[in-house]
């Protein structure tokens, strides 16, 4: 989801409040819509769905053609368990700009979550084909994750590789290739991909757990022990640390 700066939102709202008793000009209405979208996004991120819905409905009353507003509204409706309303907002966003990368990407993620993988892939491919969309690599990576979660790992690997052809050091794709190599019982390849992944990714319990799995597959007892100790010592309360005893 595209996220607006909260500093910008606060500034715009301050200007709008002073004029709330007077009819808004077109420009003021557009600014107010963007501000309310910012605030709705803030509430959405904090799980305050009721407040997010109130603000995003107001934003779309102020500017019914605000694509970002429709994308936020779609996410709010989806989280409220209203998939038909969510899809309507996604479709409106694309009717306003059929080449919108964020709209294509977000709608595809929604469709994947609903099990409509084929259509989701079509939209991700469209987003990735748009040279003006700066997050094409993310669209390809999302497509790969969708396929992987559906058990279609070979097809997922093809998308991971496409993502890496655009951005060779993209962490989600490097992780994806590590996981795919493990699924293929290719320990050497998994080690190589994991090495590239750790060079660019922040250490997390999930990363260390993946490393433990790679070391185990490679029968590298020393490396396995090092990573397992690091996971237990640095993240003792993590789910991954608990899995070491399984």
UniProtKB/TrEMBL annotation:
<dbReference type="InterPro" id="IPR013360">
    <property type="entry name" value="Pilus_4_PilW"/>
</dbReference>
<protein>
    <submittedName>
        <fullName>Type IV pilus biogenesis/stability protein PilW</fullName>
    </submittedName>
</protein>
<dbReference type="InterPro" id="IPR011990">
    <property type="entry name" value="TPR-like_helical_dom_sf"/>
</dbReference>
<dbReference type="InterPro" id="IPR019734">
    <property type="entry name" value="TPR_rpt"/>
</dbReference>
<dbReference type="InterPro" id="IPR052384">
    <property type="entry name" value="TMTC_O-mannosyltransferase"/>
</dbReference>
